[in-house]
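Researcher: Quick test of sequence recovery. Tokens follow.
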């Protein structure tokens, strides 16, 4: 689930951010205002609407119901939009002169230049989806669809007949931190290079 959410969120947030940053269309300002408004709403407020939408679409208790609502994140779109706006327009104009269309310019020119923002988005998307609990609670109840986070929460609540098994609970919680730590070590060099570049700038 985390892998699909991370890939989808990076792809869709990048495209949405580029559209808001570069494309001119009617309602663009209103759409961006709605994006900011969504970021201001606490996630817990959206739990019941999420359940109603997932149930209405008939994807409750399925991987689709767990993954699809998490594919786009307002904060991710906001991050990518701001980064795309920092890229000089002259780069894209040169690509247009060479005959590149909008999507080709985005995919072959702008996106490779956005590595710092993409790395940030990958880390945030992976960590957010890996640690997600509330959405999985309202989108699925089938034990076969339990994520590690939901399983650990069940253990912590005394479920699975493990009310007093504190070593097991602590071990499961420690196990949850391993993928996030691995993700940090994978991107450690890129994170440090980005930080050094920001300091020099």
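Model:
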């Amino acid at each position: 689930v985390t892998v699909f959410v991370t890939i989808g969120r990076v792809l869709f947030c990048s495209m949405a951010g580029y559209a808001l940053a570069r494309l001119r269309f009617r309602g663009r300002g209103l759409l961006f205002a709605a994006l900011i408004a969504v970021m201001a709403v606490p996630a817990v407020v959206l739990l019941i609407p999420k359940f109603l939408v997932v149930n209405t679409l008939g994807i409750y208790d399925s991987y689709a119901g767990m993954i699809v609502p998490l594919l786009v994140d307002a904060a991710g779109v906001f991050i990518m939009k701001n980064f795309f706006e920092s890229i000089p327009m002259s780069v894209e104009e040169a690509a247009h002169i060479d005959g590149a269309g909008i999507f080709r310019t985005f995919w072959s020119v702008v996106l490779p230049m956005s590595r710092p923002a993409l790395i940030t988005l990958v880390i945030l998307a992976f960590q957010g989806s890996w640690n997600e609990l509330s959405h999985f609670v309202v989108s699925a109840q089938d034990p076969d669809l339990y994520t590690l986070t939901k399983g650990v929460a069940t253990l912590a609540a005394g479920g699975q007949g493990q009310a007093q098994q504190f070593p097991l609970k602590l071990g499961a919680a420690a196990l949850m931190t391993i993928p996030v730590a691995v993700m940090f070590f994978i991107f450690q060099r890129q994170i440090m290079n980005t930080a050094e570049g920001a300091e020099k700038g």
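The domain at 2-200 is CATH 1.10.3720.10 (MetI-like fold).
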